[in-house]
Amino acid sequence: xxxxxxxxxxxxxxxxxxxxxxxxxxxxxxxxxxxxxxxxxxxxxxxxxxxxxxxxxxxxxxxxxxxxxxxxxxxxxxxxxxxxxxxxxxxxxxxxxxxxxxxxxxxxxxxxxxxxxxxxxxxxxxxxxxxxxxxxxxxxxxxxxxxxxxxxxxxxxxxxxxxxxxxxxxxxxxxxxxxxxxxxxxxxxxxxxxxxxxxxxxxxxxxxxxxxxxxxxxxxxxxxxxxxxxxxxxxxxxxxxxxxxxxxxxxxxxxxxxxxxxxxxxxxxxxxxxxxxxxxxxxxxxxxxxxxxxxxxxxxxxxxxxxxxxxxxxxxxxxxxxxxxxxxxxxxxxxxxxxxxxxxxxxxxxxxxxxxxxxxxxxxxxxxxx
Length: 370
Description:
By secondary structure, the protein is an alpha/beta fold.
């Protein structure tokens, strides 16, 4: 992925006077520091200046964030270009007794990682839609935090007029969720339609009644609701040509707390790489900041009530996510240990987590990724 030391040393020994590194390095948090450290090592090894030119723009679910730079021998930064922006920069080099040196320029500042994470989601969605030929998106707006941040990302990416939100209430949908969904759509300025699923759900329940006779209601009945919502959203997509956005976060997807052919339906998921606690943090960030290039409104667009209330799929009476999952701070820490850092279950337990919980989460990860 990066410029290897044996290659750079061979080039220097062959008479190279400058190292040029064209790259397609996709974004992840703090990736810039990783690139920079790698390139400084090449410069120190060879004593040559280096131009690092990185690709920019979205490709499927990857974001290439730019952030090109020029280093002088010794690792001194001479030029730092912005991230997420196409730019043509003129760089002057002068020949000295010690070889070529880039003339330093003013550095383009880079935003903090909250803004970079958020802009990645906006830019990848925007580029994906442009390349796939979609002009508008639609999503199920539940009144929960995940769909609220996805609606906000969509509004920032393509403008509120191109976002259609659909509330799909069942008998388990609380009045508070209806109110919260309406508040998000109003704050963003998006279209909001309401399509109750109680009637279709009753029809499916009746159709299965003879086969389900003698059994107790369980996840099968719960998932009927989610799959009906997915069916209705896809029907609207087929009819009007809008792309359906998926709204599941990485915490849920990692442990299978999502319904196949239901809330996993969609053409693109902007928050697939965000753990639940990161969703909370970015909602707070977006309420206080307007990302560069964002097309949505400024100010608080996600009501504090949505951020504060206990997460719930609302597929049964008084359901809470913590009925099925550990508290999200605990779950996310376990997932980051097992998934991001590739620690074993034993190593994760040694970090202070309950052994039974870690083993259960490890098992759920395995089942979800079969």
